Each structure stands twice: as structure tokens, then as C-alpha cells.
Amino acid sequence: MRLYHSRPGRSTFRPVVDRLAVSMSGAVALVACALMTLALSVVGERHPTGFALGAFAALCAVLGAVSRPVAAPLVAGAGWLFFNGFVVHRFATLEWAGAGVEATRFGVFAAAALAASLPAAWPRHRVRTAVLAVPVGVPRPKG
Q1: In three state form, how does the secondary structure of the chain look?
Q2: Is the pLDDT of residue 113 over 50?
Q3: Angle at 55 between CA 53 and CA 59, to 5 degrees
Q4: What pLDDT, in 10s, does the model give residues 85-103?
Q5: I want to staple 82 with a disulfide (CB 3.0 to 4.6 A). Which of 33, 54, 118, 123 is the partner?
């Protein structure tokens, strides 16, 4: 069964798409990035390579697909924290490699999360309803 919602006073309905709340997206992103760091460590790819960057970008895209578009900065921030702390600079130390490098990394994660979350935020189709007046003297159906 598909659920629809409408704004008060309008006769158009949009399909309801369940997305995680922004705070829940941030919490899930932190846990998922920690698990990604662990998985990269087990595989032996905890080095600043394109594989690790792509793995974190793919994770941000997956998290963005189940999140709202406004949660993209939180998802990207969690990805950047774990990528910078455990992959690039290892041993949980956050260091600054320059504004251009860090902005590019954060931008890749944010773009992946935002690109995956935007299509679900657009309205898919609208259902128009017509309100029919019940003639006077006709009993209304119960139920």
C-alpha cells in the first residue's frame, strides 16, 4: 500500500518517502564509517589510496540514499573524520593537509551523499482528487 500526504488546503497528494531524520543519519554515518575503517583495516587497504577514498565515497552515497538531503553535510563530515583520522593520518590523529586537499575530500563525500539523496526528495508524481459536494437530502455513507 502506498501512502500519500498533502498540504492543508490543497487537493494534490505526493507519495510519502521514508527517510532517516538528520540526527539519525549522523549517528548511522558515524557507526557505518567506523565499520568501514575496520573493514579497510582487515582487507589491508588502510592507506590513503584511491580505493579507500572510493570506498568512503560509496559509503557516503549509500548513506545519502537513505537520508534526507539536509543530512549530506553530516554524512560527509563523518566520512571525512574517519578517512582523515584512520586512513590518511592513521592512529586516530586528525591533521590538516591544506585547505584545498581537505575541501576536496569533504566535497567528494558531500557530493556523493547529496547526489544519492536528491532523487528521492523530488516529487515523483501527483495524484489529483476532486471534492464532490453531497446533494442535500441524500444520506451520507457511514464508516
Answers
A1: CCCEECCCCCCEEEECCCCECHHHHHHHHHHHHHHHHHHHHHHCCCCCCHHHHHHHHHHHHHHHHCECHHHHHHHHHHHHHHHHHHHHCCCCCCCCCCHHHHHHHHHHHHHHHHHHHHHHHCCCCCEECCCCCCCCCCCCCCC
A2: yes
A3: 115
A4: 999 887 777 778 788 888 9
A5: 33
What's the full length of the chain, in residues?
143
d(CA 44, CA 80): 19
Sheet holding 4-5: strands in order across? Answer: 4-5, 12-15, 127-128
